[in-house]
Amino acid sequence: MKDALGSAQSLLILGGTSDIALATARRMAAGKTKRIVLAARPSERLDAAAGDLRAYGAEVETVAFDAAQVEEHEKTLGAVFAAGDVDVVLLAFGVLGDQASDEQDPVAAAKVAQTNYVGAMSSGLVCANALKKQGHGSLVVLSSVAGERARKANFIYGSTKAGLDAFAQGLGDSLHGSGVHVMVVRPGFVETKMTAGMEKAPLSTTPDAVADAIISGLRRGAEIVWVPAALRYVMSGLRHLPRPVFRKAAQR
């Protein structure tokens, strides 16, 4: 349960090795969050992340979780909630894919959608229903500005984030008044292990900056958070560009 000041005492991360998620977890563990569950595929990186967070004094548990195995989500995540209330769920998993090759390989493209959208929808619903049952909590969904208007260079990934974003917004509306809060986070280009070696985009940001925005958004009960905040206005302009103009702009 949350304490008298509303600070989260428990955190569940779906995608427990995400740079953004771990930066957020470190901030929460340094505060009043004492129970952290990292759900991800077993790996040395997951074990190392758990050890790092334990150094902050938190009780950290790792759970084997595969976004693509939707038939296992209810059982796996249900067990986490059965062990105690969860104040914040951070849905942070996702894959970029390889646009050039995925365009020529529909099966590979479908796997990107299976993880980023289908897996997120399934696990998001499981967690939302559990939060609703306990009567409180926040679900934080990591979306992306790529979903605002897909470019030809990343329309497969962008389309999955567009679907996820729409799903999360609708889910938040459906849970209004239930005690459950859904917050959509839309970062721009984030310098993480997933984007290593890629050319930085304008208004690039870092995992620490996104983590700060997540914590701030939770404190004020925000429904949508842009990182950096200026992207809200940039994307508003890009979203309304005539299509021929956008095609040219997106090539730069």
Helix share of residues? 40-55%
Assembly of the depicted chains: single chain
Structural class: alpha/beta
Shape: globular
Q: Average the pLDDT over all residues and give the rounded result.
A: 89
Low-pLDDT windows of residues: 1-6
Largest sheet: 7 strands, parallel
Please count the helical segments: 9
Based on DSSP secondary structure assignment, what is the total number of beta strands? Answer: 7
- Rg over CA atoms, rounded to whole Å, is 18 Å
Q: In whole angstroms, how far apart are the ends?
A: 48 Å
Question: Could you tell me the strand content as a percent range?
Answer: 15-25%
Strand order of the largest sheet: 3-2-1-4-5-6-7
Succession of helices and strands: EHEHEHEHHEHEHEHH
Question: What does the model show?
Answer:
The protein is of the alpha/beta class. It is built from 9 helices and 7 strands. It has helices at 19-29, 44-54, 73-82, 99-102, 106-134, 155-174, 207-220, 231-239, 243-250, and strands at 10-14, 35-40, 59-64, 88-91, 137-142, 180-187, 224-227. The chain has a 7-stranded parallel beta sheet with strand order 3-2-1-4-5-6-7, sandwiched between helices. Helix 6 links the parallel strand 5 (137-142) and strand 6. Helix 1 (19-29) packs parallel to helix 2, helix 3 (73-82) runs parallel beside helix 5 (106-134) and helix 5 (106-134) runs parallel beside helix 6. Mean pLDDT is 89; it is low at 1-6.
Q: Layout of helices and strands, plus pairs?
A:
Layout: E1 10-14, H1 19-29, E2 35-40, H2 44-54, E3 59-64, H3 73-82, E4 88-91, H4 99-102, H5 106-134, E5 137-142, H6 155-174, E6 180-187, H7 207-220, E7 224-227, H8 231-239, H9 243-250
Parallel strand pairs: 1-2, 1-4, 2-3, 4-5, 5-6, 6-7
Helix pairs in contact: 1-2, 1-7, 3-5, 5-6
